[in-house]
Each structure stands twice: as structure tokens, then as C-alpha cells.
Amino acid sequence: AQKVTQAQTEISVVEKEDVTLDCVYETRDTTYYLFWYKQPPSGELVFLIRRNSFDEQNEISGRYSWNFQKSTSSFNFTITASQVVDSAVYFCALTLDTGRRALTFGSGTRLQVQP
Amino acid sequence: EAQVTQNPRYLITVTGKKLTVTCSQNMNHEYMSWYRQDPGLGLRQIYYSMNVEVTDKGDVPEGYKVSRKEKRNFPLILESPSPNQTSLYFCASSRIQGSNQPQHFGDGTRLSIL
Prior knowledge:
The structure holds two protein chains of two kinds.
Chain A lengths: L2 E3 L4 E5 L4 E3 L2 E3 L5 E8 L6 E7 L6 E3 L2 E6 L4 E6 L8 E9 L7 E2 L3 E6 L1
Chain B lengths: L3 E4 L2 E4 L5 E7 L5 E8 L3 E10 L2 E4 L7 E2 L9 E3 L8 E8 L9 E2 L3 E5 L1
Parallel strand pairs in B: 2-11
Antiparallel strand pairs in B: 1-3, 3-8, 4-5, 4-9, 5-6, 7-8, 9-10, 9-11
């Protein structure tokens, strides 16, 4: 069975600091997909990014960047110059290439950005 | 606006009183799913549906029922709710082509079973 570990339960930073959220996954499948979701205080889940197991290119989107390394089974998420609006719980998730496509979520990292 | 709509957003009820949480999506997605979120456990899949009249169990289906009579709707039914079903519930939908399609989530339904 697959597993996603987010070891950082809570991180607190001051605005404008850079912060990296760690995600380590386990799966025996060679084809899988990784996702990051954001859950702001209002409670909804917002999709941020997906990555295929066969595509190790890193990605940057504005202040957000993602580093995918198959060798270490990690898919880390960095926020550059953090802002108060980034305060949320962030979830890393994995799904396999099967019909059920259930997302296996990590337990989440709560990020608090202080002004 | 493309969205997944859940109702109600909040519900407090008592043990044994049947309830239904509705979920509707306007994106013509074939795939729909229900998750529950509990502290320290992340989100876990309850049931999923690949298309109309096609449903199957997820990781934690006990105590729940679903139906998929129409493509846009996927209600979650608790026939006899119990306190251990107190949780935050999310409905999600996605296109069916490829497992890498992101699932779009509703805003969540917070259920409290007394």
C-alpha cells in the first residue's frame, strides 16, 4: 500500500521568509501521480499542482516551486517570500494509475505566516 | 463557474437519524468520490463512482451508502449515523481520462453526530 508522510506538523514563519514543506511518499508502483492541495482557514481544498512519476522536471509558478526527486521519493513545496495569505494547511497526495484513483493524503502541514 | 457543490455545509444531528449529504458538479465529470477528513489522519476515501450507476467502496465505506443515478449528482447517505462519523466530508470530481486528472473538491460538510 502507498503512504505519504508530511513530517512537519506545523511551521511558523515571518512574512517574506522562504519556507519549504516536505513530502515523502512510498509506493511500489512505477506509475503514480503526486499532488499538492491547499486548505485555507475557510476549509475548502484547492488544487495547486500535479506531477507524473515519469516527469521529474521541477516547476515554478510565481512564488511557488516544487522539487520532485524520485531517488529520494520526495516532492517538496517551496514558497518564496511568504505572505499572510499563504497561511493554510497544505496536503501532499499520491494516486496510482488505477481506476479507483483514490488520493492517499499525508496528514498535512499547517503553515502560519506572521505579519 | 465550474464547481462542486455540497449541502449542507454544517449539520448537527443525533445518533440513528438518517441523513443525506448532497453533492453536485457542473463540469460533466465522469468520476466522483467522497472523502472524510479527521485530525491527524488526512483525508480518506469513502466511496467512489466511475460513471452513472457505477459505484465502489473506498478505504472506509462502513456505515455509508452512495448512489449515482445522474452524472452530476453523487449523494452520501448515512442510514444510521453514529458519533464516530462526526467528521468533515468532502466530495470531489474529475475527468475520467488518466489518473493524473486533478480532483476538484467541494467546500466540505461538517457533520456532528451527538
